[in-house]
Amino acid sequence: MALSFLLDPPLTADLRERIVRLWTDVTNAGGPIGFVAPVTVDDVRPMAEATFAGVEAGVDRLLVGMDGAEPVAVLFIVDNRFDLKAHWRVLKRVMVLPGSQGRGYGAALMREAEAVGRAMRLTGLQVTVRDGHGLDAFYAKLGYTETGRVPGALRVAPDDDRDELQMWLDLR
Ligand SMILES: CC(C)(COP(=O)(O)OP(=O)(O)OC[C@H]1O[C@@H](n2cnc3c(N)ncnc32)[C@H](O)[C@@H]1OP(=O)(O)O)[C@@H](O)C(=O)NCCC(=O)NCCS
Fold this sequence. Notes:
Aminopeptidase, alpha+beta, 35% strand, 7-stranded mixed sheet, single chain, binds coenzyme A
């Protein structure tokens, strides 16, 4: 079933809770979206609420992929909060429900974000990627190229530092 997309849907209590649960489930399935598993919804909620606040302030944008009535794919289009970088955005917390992965939903979500970026007349979109999950291949298939790498930037465990990659889609 093809996803339908909602851009900046009202952040009702129900939608907030579903996104917090999705974020938690994706993390616990090993997804590198701001946390290291295992986490509970209570671990995720403060970061999620801070992220929702940026959307509610009209600064950032929320894109939700719906499978029928269920939100199964989410990303945030995040403003740089810096005038000299007002012409591009960072895509954050790109996630697809574990049971729905591998069906093309992630690629469809990213393509929709690209369409939103073009409609906003942005010059580019950036994603930051935790190395070691093969995600550079996912983004490369969507046209993103590696533009930077910070060695060992992410300490996911006391003896496990991962590079952080910046990947970029030029929209000019
Ligand atoms: C990464 C993620 C968003 C991809 O969504 P998805 O719906 O599973 O991916 P799709 O089915 O659309 O896959 C599109 C293509 O990317 C490839 N791909 C998907 N996930 C990949 C991964 N982790 N590593 C390498 N390639 C990947 C698929 O094989 C597919 O290739 P194909 O077009 O040649 O068949 C999803 O797996 C997810 O939520 N992962 C956990 C969270 C995460 O890693 N988010 C990114 C943080 S930077």
